[in-house]
Amino acid sequence: FFFLEYEDGDLSSWINRERFQGYLNVDGFTLYELGDTGKLVAIAVIDDKNSSVEHTRLKTIIQEVARDYRDHFHRDFQFGHMDGNDYINSLLMDDLTIPTIVVLNTSNQQYFLPDRHIENTEDMVQFINNILDGTAEAQGGDGLLQRIKRIIYDAKSTVVSVFKSSPLLGCFLFGLPLGVISIMCYGICTADTDGGIDEHEAAKKENGDRELTDEGSEEEQEEEKNGKYTELSDGELKQKDIMEKKKD
């Protein structure tokens, strides 16, 4: 490999990009290491145990592109194949049907899927050119929505894996906290209900006392009025007596 400072930049970055072979058997650790190169990773996701024509054909196509078009794509792309789709599914948060081809951007967690079936090397080259010129649609990413989706997916995957490996342990780990939370919620709801009933009874009692107080005040007012009427009538009688004595 020849280093051209004008095209390749500084020497250490060039060595980091060129330290891998043009075609690799990619696993999780290798994919992590490839993230330091800054290259997009074109992977044929296949089943190595499956010797059908479709699986071997996609692997052959990736190998031919890596070998025959190295001068065109080696600065931007790393090529390889991955056995099985378990790791790639967790990375993409999607269930990929194998065999398939996916291109990963490990720097921002974006990925590209071909919009049509890859039949030959020319189709693969066209797909790579679409990625380079921006016409291919990028999926995934590291935005806020994708981060929330990642948290939900990881939590779901953890729960499923625990129940698959040990159902009894899963029931204990998740059932016990749910039971405690349920009891707490029930206690809170019950306490609020009792408090509401007590407040209602207290308000009802207070209203009754007010009514009794109002009734008492009305009776006192009537008694006062009757007393005034009695006093006035006695005074009138005295005046009548005086007038009668004067006449006499």
TrEMBL record:
Q: Which organism is it from?
A: Alca torda
> Biased composition, Acidic residues: where in the chain?
214-223
What is the name listed in the Swiss-Prot or TrEMBL entry for this protein?
A: protein disulfide-isomerase
- UniProtKB keywords: Isomerase, Membrane, Transmembrane, Transmembrane helix
- What residue ranges carry the coiled-coil annotation? none
Q: Can you cite an annotated GO cellular component?
A: cell surface
Q: Where is the composition biased (Basic and acidic residues)?
A: 200-213, 235-248
Q: Where in the cell is it found?
A: Membrane
EC code: 5.3.4.1
Which of the seven top EC classes does this enzyme belong to? isomerase
Q: Kindly list the GO molecular function terms attached to this UniProt entry.
A: protein disulfide isomerase activity
Cell cycle: is it a keyword of this entry?
no
- What would be the name of the gene that encodes this protein? Tmx3
Q: Which reaction does it catalyse?
A: Catalyzes the rearrangement of -S-S- bonds in proteins
Question: Which Pfam families does this entry report, sorted A to Z?
Answer: Thioredoxin_6
Q: Does the keyword Isomerase apply?
A: yes
Q: Where is this region: Disordered?
A: 200-248
